[in-house]
Automatic annotation (TrEMBL), chain A:
One of its GO terms (cellular component) is cytoplasm. PANTHER family: ATPASES OF THE PP SUPERFAMILY-RELATED, CYTOPLASMIC TRNA 2-THIOLATION PROTEIN 1. Residues 289-319 form the Cytoplasmic tRNA 2-thiolation protein 1 C-terminal domain. Plays a central role in 2-thiolation of mcm(5)S(2)U at tRNA wobble positions of tRNA(Lys), tRNA(Glu) and tRNA(Gln). Directly binds tRNAs and probably acts by catalyzing adenylation of tRNAs, an intermediate required for 2-thiolation. It is unclear whether it acts as a sulfurtransferase that transfers sulfur from thiocarboxylated URM1 onto the uridine of tRNAs at wobble position. Pathway: tRNA modification; 5-methoxycarbonylmethyl-2-thiouridine-tRNA biosynthesis. InterPro entries: CTU1-like_ATP-bd, CTU1_C, Ncs6/Tuc1/Ctu1, Rossmann-like_a/b/a_fold, TilS/TtcA_N, tRNA_thiolation_TtcA_Ctu1. Residues 62-245 form the tRNA(Ile)-lysidine/2-thiocytidine synthase N-terminal domain. It comes from Cinchona calisaya. Its EC number is 2.7.7.-. Keywords: ATP-binding, Cytoplasm, Nucleotide-binding, RNA-binding, Transferase, tRNA processing, tRNA-binding. ATP binds at residues 65-67, 71, 97, 175, 180. This is Cytoplasmic tRNA 2-thiolation protein 1.
From TrEMBL, chain B:
Its main location: cytoplasm. GO terms for molecular function: nucleotidyltransferase activity. Residues 36-45 have a biased composition (Polar residues). Belongs to the CTU2/NCS2 family. HAMAP family: CTU2. This is Cytoplasmic tRNA 2-thiolation protein 2. It is found in: Cytoplasm. One of its GO terms (biological process) is tRNA wobble uridine modification. It comes from Cinchona calisaya.
Amino acid sequence: MEGETAKPAKGRVCTICNQRRAALKRPKTLEQICRECFYAVFEQEIHGVIVENQLFKPGERVAIGASGGKDSTVLAYVLSELNRRHNYGLDLFLLSVDEGITGYRDDSLETVKRNEIQYGLPLKVVSYKELYGWTMDEIVKLIGLKNNCTFCGVFRRQALDRGAALLKVDKLVTGHNADDIAETVLLNILRGDIARLSRCTSITTGEDGPIPRCKPFKYTYEKEIFTYAYFKRLDYFSTECIYSPNAYRGFAREFIKDLERIRPRAILDIIKSGEDFRISTSTKMPEQGNCERCGYISSQKWCKACVLLEGLNRGLPKLGIGRSRGVNNEPGKNTKQAKGVESIQSKQCGNLDF
Amino acid sequence: MACNSATCQSGCYRDDNDKLDDQFPLPAPAPATVPNHRQQTTNGVSPDGDSNDSILCVKCKLNQPMAVDGNIGLFCGDCFRSNLYGKFRFSVTSNALISPSDNVLVAFSGGPSSRVALQFVHEMQMKAQKNFDASRDRSLPVFGVGVAFIDESLIVPVPADEFDKAIEEMRFVVSNLAPPIKQFYVVPTESIYSSDSDDGRNRLKELLTGVSDITGREDLLEHLRMLALQKVALENGYTKILLGTCTSRIACHVLEATVKGQGYSLAADIQYVDARWEIPVILPLRDCLAQELHTLCSLDSLKTLEVLNGHNSGINALITSFVKLLQEENPSRESTIVRTAGKLTPFHFNRMPEVDDCNIRLASQRRQKKYNLKPNESLPPESFCRICNSPLKKADVKSCKMEDGKMSAEVFRDTCCRSCQFQILPKDISAVEHFHSLLPLQMVARAEYNNLGEDKDGLLREQIQDCLLSDTEDGT
């Protein structure tokens, strides 16, 4: 809470119920409302998004990507609450990825395990060690603190899908919030990535793949998630990753926070713009295929995870980092590539860091 | 700044400042403004410049490059100038922006961008004049040029003596560009009201004070500026309005529109041609960076006046400083932003309307390569926002019927885009009616006109559908 819960002036009542004393200024609209009304509008909005976009069908098995952080904790809480209240008829699961980062993930996993009991949701943990044979600690020991986020990001994406397949779920939901999506829209404009720009605002992605992913928090402000977790006293883990302590302090993030201060609605407007951009369907999109090695979806011969893994196992950790992909092009040029221009890095944690 | 994307096209390079173990240490990075192929030469040069002879202009390879912001640039002065002018000329010729029969009105603020725009148009006109004088049949007329300054001193107050001095200087600049003689117009914003100037002044003031959001007020003023330009162009027989909008300004506009939720209409604003207005608007400096224009102004000592350019505020100011920061970190960032937005599908009005007069057509075809004039397959949008004239997405338009030709406040509000509804229109619906009454006629009349025009076209098309062989007008 960074002071956004303004001290209610004496006698100020909630602008929604007109009865109870206002306890906070709602970040999205700046209305002064009471706690109960805040819970109600917060949950109602998410319910509205779920219904309007038909995110779930009755009887579906749904995995919640749970990191133990505030977004996924609130998501798990709210989803199980709404599932009960509105009879979605969903079987919910928690799905966590253990990257093998001592002093960070082991602690946050403890939080998820507590959530498992608190919300009564079965938990499945998949670890990098069992999937890939490497922990992040081992990877960092080999490659240092540069590009480590590339490995982690690529592996996590696949690990979530593999975990979801093990749980035999129909859908995977993640806690990406409105701020995250607005930031991605901006970053894709700054980078010139028109293909990603066209799909980064979809609420459901990977519908053609085996397990679609969706983001019920697409229109939910980060600040409101914070506020909700704070008032509900939810049990979440708030330490940053030890290998990338500033991962989320990118320029674009700062800019969005500045915008929000001037005009809270700007975050929703950016998402609206992202949805409305006139991108012609003939814009070249990478063709989706399968990795020849592990069968995971990939636009190349080998998926990114396999390329990175190959590099790790062969002692060439720079393989697959940078623009050209060694294995997918010519294996003979690996050494040259590893030494070559390491100019443009793969996507890290989605920020423009300096 | 590195942007950490495998698909990044911005050409940025990660700075290797962090001294972490790297198995393959890279050579020291070259200064950001110097491209890699020059690295070897620059690395061997001491800052004193005693071996400066080895660095030559990348184009002519004869002269020393000039300094840009303390760094060594790519070009020598002459090559820099011709390169910049080349970008201008290329955008003019490849998009058929100016034809010989045109009468071009340059929107002149006194700032570096419009100053360079004026200079370049003048040079182009001079060359056309020379060709005209030399040619035997004199079949190609020389396009005309006029200059308009929009006087916003009513809204952005400037001390009277400073203002008069600035106007005098501008008049001097314009008169020095002749021959051929260029008219100079000083147009007060309130001229958009047809009534007498006192009444217009009051209405304009009241209109702008009615907008509580500072960003909204600034944007409304910009829309009014365009109306004033349209009016002066129309009244004085101009056929094109030329703006000095450069890459850097467009990059800011891309983010401004995104942040204001105008993603749908964004593509309309950032093309070389914007013919949704009665007088088409052209942006021939679309590919020039603000920094290049600045450099040219100081290189050729083109006088610029910053007095009259009010600084922006609110969201627009935040974006300007954000883009400036990004540009400092990576000199190609502005271009990347514009290139990204350039991939969005433009609208049907983002190309020059075909001229009917075949004499002119033949004449202009002789000198213009129109290879960028591919027709856009997009269908005309239904309607435009009354305030900002941006095309509205069909899904966002509520069907509205006017009752007895009079428009209610609700209906009026529904004919504005979401962004204008939020940042320009009064929140209170009862105040909207009064606000509507203060708007100039051009805005009030806009929607009806547009709807009518397109409905008629669509209807006609429908009736002759069976004899049409292709979906586009020109049969491609």
